[in-house]
Amino acid sequence: MKKLLLCCLFLPFWSLTLRAEPAELLKDHPLAGTLWHVGEKRQASPEELFAAAAEARWILLGEKHDNAEHHRIQAEVVGALGERERRPALVWEMAQPEHDAVLKAATAEQVDGLGDAIQWEQRGWPSWPEYQPIAEQALKHGMTMAAGDAPPAVRRNLGKGGSLDADTAADIGWSRDYNDDQRRRLMELLALSHCGMLPEKVLPAMADVQRLRDAWIAKVMRDEGAEDGAILIAGAEHVRRDRGVPWHLLPLGDDMFALAAVEVARDVTDPEAYPSFDPEQFDYVWFTARVDEKDPCEAFRKS
User: Fold this and answer.
1) Does residue 10 have a pLDDT over 70?
2) How far apart are CA 230 and CA 87, in angstroms?
3) Burial of residue 275, with CB atoms counted within 10 A of its CB: 0-12 exposed, 13-18 middle, 19 or more buried
4) Is the pTM of this model over 0.90?
């Protein structure tokens, strides 16, 4: 079950183009389509979720990248916030600083070509049309959009054991480091999500890159959300409260909302059996059908 639940928690480090597919597998699973308030261990309605999100300054919407249903949910939440007269900035994990100007200048009339304009699919992300409704809802309601990810060169340098320059480090609050338990748990998850096939010596640098990306995204959200907060579209690992972007936003207060869209697993019908069903990670979990049941480690081995 762990392999099924951990696939695509992180953008793959090997060369693999993701595709967002319809979630058709296990549609009749008892949890598929259900929404849960994690802290209170009860089912919730979409309207409750929309209201809770609208009350928060920082709204973080986590996905499994290759599940098209997760992007539909994200678009629905963005639209619901707009209908409630919220105008937060929309921050994309998938876009880098060089794409920021294009995102900020985008109009509803240009949204079809926005993926090509920022080389979305060429950089390995699932097809832009699956994400496009999110951008459409943001632009329809007058929200600005921004690139959230750290520059590739900075990520590569840190991944090779380099360090950040002093100005960058100060800008993203790099001195706020994980404690030993946070770092250990992250490295365990990195090892597991890469099928135990990575040399142990690379895990500390990979953990640093993950922390860098989360700290950078949090900095973008702070900057872009000065007026009415910000929404983050990102993989579920980035939106978890215990060490993801919300942890980096905590110095500003706990005025945030974290949702994880989670695929169901065959024969696992107790929501509390899913690792994401943890109030220290997420406020709400929205279960969906699966894209597939392929062993992600098989693809990793072949690559």
Assistant:
1) no
2) 8
3) middle
4) yes
